[in-house]
Please model this.
Amino acid sequence: MNWAETIVESLKKWNTSLIAYVPDISIHQVTSLIDNDPYFHLVSATREEEAIGIAAGAYAVGRNAAVFMQSSGFGNSINAIASMCIPYRMPIPMFINLRGGPGEFNIAQVPMGRSTRPILDLLGLVHFTLDDDYKMDKIVDGAMKLCYANRQPVAICLTQLLHGGKLA
Model:
């Protein structure tokens, strides 16, 4: 099972059927699997804070939702996470494509890629970084369990070493 299939399996296991995302080629492998599976409802957002709002609305009506975004867009979503998801204890798994690491070709992606995990720390949010698929099933499953048990957002950062990244 590859990394994308592992994520899809875990989302299903944790009854997370609404997926809000900002389209990105690096996560296309997983979002295309989600889009082709009738279990899921995939919602494309124009901005990351919109995706967070969609997931928060789903949670408010009793539906589990996850968000897929890029680290540069994570910066756009900080206010929505800090002012809504954290204080109202909304368990939203966030899958963040972490840019700016080994093999990055776009220098504009580096600052936010480096800042994403420290910002998550400052917000007090648990996060995990996946560089390869070793024990990925246990890490993603454990992150989902923690997210729902703690009723707080949790970030799963996906690096270029895991999914191959973008080509220049």
About this structure: The chain has a mean pLDDT of 93.
